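TASK: fixed-backbone design
INPUT:
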């Protein structure tokens, strides 16, 4: 009987040495292409390429963009990718990277939660990076939500910076305000930032080349004055009352302005920084009162003239091309609380002559907001495109009829230019909501080309087919000022996000 032959164990294959004259395609790439590859790797992995050949240490040492996350220098296999395993080791690794730099850092992005704990050390980091002479983009995200990171003086004096993005930081202009030299800055993004009115005013004023300014949640500041002659885009989101005054040269119109006021859930967005004066001491009882953010918000709403703030904002937008307003249902409730009223038109010298596109997300059936809508239309003689996204909440008033808008809209300048209207409704089959402002515009807009009434597809079920067809028949019999206008009902899967 023959014995079975057991095959020998397979040996691990060895890599054959590169043959003389073999083409090194990776090494043949230029530095710019290699940088584009390395920047897509985690910084730790990019640093590991330094062992490949004599050329690679220099390639890594001249990498233009450094992106630092909490887990950037963790041990491989560390289970939590969103947490720093060992902050001191993280700091030592970053120091090693910076010490071996062979060229200025062009873009520096740091995101961690221990900048406040190691404030002096990070002060050195930003002095090194900002003083290198080549920094163009800087992003600082402080994820320690208990404390704001005080922006070091080195950032204010960086002459080469073109983009600055700050999250959960404190702005405090150096005592020598003239030291602020951000004259090359074109983009400034402030998110959850603590700053006084004077600090915001000085920083923006010094950024003479700024083209885009974004403020998304700001604590402490109440009256923001923006002087920016080159500004092209302005985005502001606020969870509490804010007066915004824009001062700029009329020679260069603003391409886009967006304002969102959302006053819901003060317990999530308000903080002690909103009312606490850092120059005085507070008792324990006073601190406890300020921690009741809901009462704090109600008190401030009662003391604020919301409509005056809105008028101050709008009267500075005469040359703006595109305007988007998002006014939450909580904003409507605040207006009811203070019993506010508004103008039906801006002063003629402040008309929005440059406005071509207007987007409104609000409860347009609310009495005060309906007057605001009328004010905007009466003050925009060259408006061509109008978009209204309907916001409704329990207890919303009955939709306003076309006759209401006939009385409110007294200026007909925009009616000779308006070409497109898109109306997003979440109540298509409830009380004929489209008969109000939509019907008025179809009856009066002389050159209107398209009126599109958009509804979410989930609003209309198979059993609603008869009601939907009745709505279409109703549109067909509306009187029309323009014989060429197209009236349509359009289903969508989602409404646009502001």
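OUTPUT:
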């Amino acid at each position: 009987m023959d014995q079975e032959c057991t095959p020998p164990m397979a040996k691990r294959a060895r890599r054959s040495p590169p043959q003389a004259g073999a083409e090194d395609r990776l090494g043949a790439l230029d530095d710019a292409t290699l940088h584009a590859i390395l920047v897509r790797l985690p910084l730790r992995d990019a640093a590991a390429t330094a062992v490949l050949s004599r050329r690679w240490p220099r390639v890594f040492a001249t990498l233009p963009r450094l992106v630092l996350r909490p887990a950037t220098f963790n041990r491989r296999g560390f289970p939590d990718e969103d947490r720093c395993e060992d902050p001191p080791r993280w700091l030592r690794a970053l120091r090693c990277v910076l010490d071996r730099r062979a060229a200025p850092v062009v873009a520096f992005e740091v995101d961690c939660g221990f900048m406040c704990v190691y404030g002096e050390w990070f002060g050195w980091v930003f002095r090194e990076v900002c003083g290198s002479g080549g920094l163009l983009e800087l992003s600082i995200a402080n994820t320690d939500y208990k404390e704001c990171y005080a922006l070091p003086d080195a950032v204010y004096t960086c002459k080469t910076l073109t983009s600055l993005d700050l999250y959960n930081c404190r702005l405090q202009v150096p005592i020598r305000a003239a030291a602020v030299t951000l004259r090359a800055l074109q983009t400034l993004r402030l998110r959850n930032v603590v700053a006084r009115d004077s600090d915001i005013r000085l920083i923006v004023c010094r950024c003479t080349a700024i083209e885009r300014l974004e403020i998304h949640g700001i604590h402490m500041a109440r009256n923001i004055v923006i002087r920016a002659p080159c500004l092209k885009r302005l985005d502001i989101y606020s969870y509490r009352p804010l007066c915004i005054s824009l001062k700029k040269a009329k020679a260069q119109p603003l391409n886009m302005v967006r304002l969102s006021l959302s006053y819901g859930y003060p317990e999530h967005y308000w903080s002690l920084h909103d009312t606490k004066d850092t120059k005085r001491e507070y008792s324990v009882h006073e601190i406890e009162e300020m921690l009741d953010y809901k009462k704090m918000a109600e008190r401030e709403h009662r003391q604020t003239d919301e409509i005056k703030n809105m008028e101050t904002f709008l009267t500075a937008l005469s040359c703006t091309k595109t305007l988007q307003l998002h006014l939450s249902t909580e904003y409507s409730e605040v207006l009811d609380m203070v019993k506010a009223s508004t103008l039906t038109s801006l002063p003629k010298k402040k008309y929005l002559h440059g406005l071509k596109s207007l987007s409104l997300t609000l409860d347009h059936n609310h009495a005060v907001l309906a007057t605001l809508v009328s004010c905007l239309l009466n003050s925009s003689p060259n408006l061509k495109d109008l978009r209204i996204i309907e916001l409704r909440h329990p207890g919303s008033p009955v939709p306003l009829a076309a006759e209401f808008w006939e009385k409110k809209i007294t200026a007909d300048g925009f009616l000779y230019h308006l070409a497109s209207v898109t109306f997003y409704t979440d109540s298509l089959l409830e009380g004929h909501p489209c008969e109000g402002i939509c019907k008025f515009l179809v009856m009066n807009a002389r050159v209107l080309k398209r009126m599109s009434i958009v509804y979410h597809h989930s609003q209309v079920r198979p059993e609603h087919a008869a009601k939907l067809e009745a709505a279409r028949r109703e549109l067909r019999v509306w009187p029309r000022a323009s014989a060429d206008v197209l009236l349509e009902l359009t289903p969508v899967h989602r409404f646009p996000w502001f």
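COMMENT: The first helix runs from residue 31 to 38.
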